[in-house]
C-alpha cells in the first residue's frame, strides 16, 4: 500500500470514528436516556430556572384582597443579603414563607397576608399551582 | 479537489442526484478536499485565546501546588503557547487537546472540578482536538515561517498554504450535532409553550414577578419557536453554501444574544471561532488577501526577493 493510499485509509477511519462518537454520544444520552460521562449531551440550560416561583402576595381585610408589591413594602427594611435575594427571586416553599414573614413583620402582627404561587416545572405547560399556598390561608398565623 | 458541498450554488444544481454520484461527492467533501490552510490556522489561534480566557486564570501555578496541579499547569502553558505560535503545530495542538480533555474528564469528573465538566468546556476541548487534524500549521505559524525560509534558501517554490480539510469537516459536523441535539432538547411542549424562557427570564432578570405586559406570553412563545427553528436550520443549513449565506448572520446574532444575555462562559466565543470551519476555506483565503490589498501576482513580486529571517 503506497503512502497516499495509507493516508486516505487512516483519514477515513478517523473520520468515521469521530463522526460516530459525535453523533452517538448525544443520541445515547438524550434519546436512549443513557448515563455516561464519556458521551456529551447537548442540553444547555435544560432545567435552569425550574422551581422558580411566580408569587403574588395579598393583604386581606377579611372581605377583599389587595395585591401587595413586596419589593415596595420591604424597600426600607434592613434585610440581610440572603433575605433581599429571596425577596427578589423566590425558589422554594420556605422562601415564600420567609417573604410572607417579612411582610407580616413590616405591616404589623395583625396583618393578614395571603399568597398565590405558581411553580415552574418541566411538565405540561411549565407551570403548576403551588398547593402549599392559597388565598384562604393567612400566612401571618403560621 | 472540488467538492459538491463547497461548490458555488450555480454549479451545485448540476450535481447528479444519482445515489452513487452523491456518495462520491460526500466522500470527496469529507475526506479528499484540499484547500487553504488559513481558516484552520485562524481557528487554531482563536482557540488558544479562548482556552486562555476560560482556563488560564485557573491553572496558574500558585492555584494548585499538588503534583497533579503543577503538572497540569506546566503542560497547559507549554502546549498552548506552542500551539499559538505554531511550533510543531500538529503535535502541540494534539498535546493541548490531551491537556484539555484531561481537564474535562479527569479533573472535571474524577477530581470534582464541576466547572470543567460543562458543555462549553467540552466543546472547547473537543474543538482543540479536531483542530489537530487540520492543516493549521501551514499558515500563520513558526512552522510556516521556517518552511518558507528553507524553500527560499534552497531556491525552491514557496510551500503552498494548503492541506487536506477533513479536520475542518469534522469541526463543522460537531457544530451541526450541537445545534441538532440542542434543538431536539427544546422540541417539547414545555419549551415551545414559552414557559422555559419565562423561567429563565424570571431567574435572571425579573425575579418572582410574572411580567405584566400585554402580549408578553405570545412574544416569548414566538421567541421559543424561532429559537428552535433556527437551531434546526443551523444544524443542516450551515453545511450547504446555498443555505449558509442566509444563516451565518442569524446564527451569529443568536450566539451574540446568548453571550450577552446568559452566563454561558466561553461557549459562544468557541462557536464563533469554529464557524470558520463551515466557510469555504479558499474563499476565506481570498477574502484575507482582498482585505489586505494583496493579489496573487503582487504577492509573487513582493515575496520573491525578500528573505524572511
Attribute tags:
heterodimer; A: 142 residues; alpha+beta; 2 domains; four-stranded antiparallel beta sheet; 4 helices; 16% strand; rod-shaped; B: 309 residues; mainly alpha; two-stranded antiparallel sheet; 2% strand; disordered C terminus
Output mean pLDDT of chain A. 92
Share in β-strands of chain A: 15-25%
Give the number of DSSP strands of chain A.
Answer: 4
Most extensive protein-chain contact, per-chain counts? A-B, 41 and 42 residues
Whole-Å distance between the termini of chain A?
83 Å
SSE pattern of chain A: HEEHHHEE
Total number of β-strand segments of chain B? 2
Q: How many alpha or pi helices of chain B?
A: 15
Largest sheet of chain A: 4 strands, antiparallel
Oligomer: heterodimer
Rg calc of chain B = 22 Å
Roughly what percent helix of chain A?
A: 25-40%
Strand-residue fraction of chain B? under 5%
Major beta-sheet overview of chain B: 2 strands, antiparallel
Q: How are the strands ordered across the major sheet of chain B?
A: 1-2
Q: Major sheet of chain A: order of its strands?
A: 2-1-3-4
Radius of gyration of chain A: 27 Å
Q: How would you explain this protein's 3D organization?
A:
The complex is a heterodimer of chains A (142) and B (309). Chain A is α+β, with helices and mostly antiparallel strands. Chain A has four helices and four strands; from the N terminus they run H-E-E-H-H-H-E-E. Chain A has helices at 3-31, 70-73, 81-88, 93-107, and strands spanning 53-60, 65-68, 113-120, 127-129. The model of chain A has no long low-confidence stretch (mean pLDDT 92). Chain B is mainly α. Chain B has helices spanning 9-12, 19-32, 38-55, 67-85, 89-110, 119-131, 142-153, 166-186, 189-192, 195-206, 216-237, 241-261, 267-274, 281-291, 296-303, and strands at 34-36, 162-164. In chain B, helix 11 crosses helix 12. Chain B is globular and about 75 Å long.
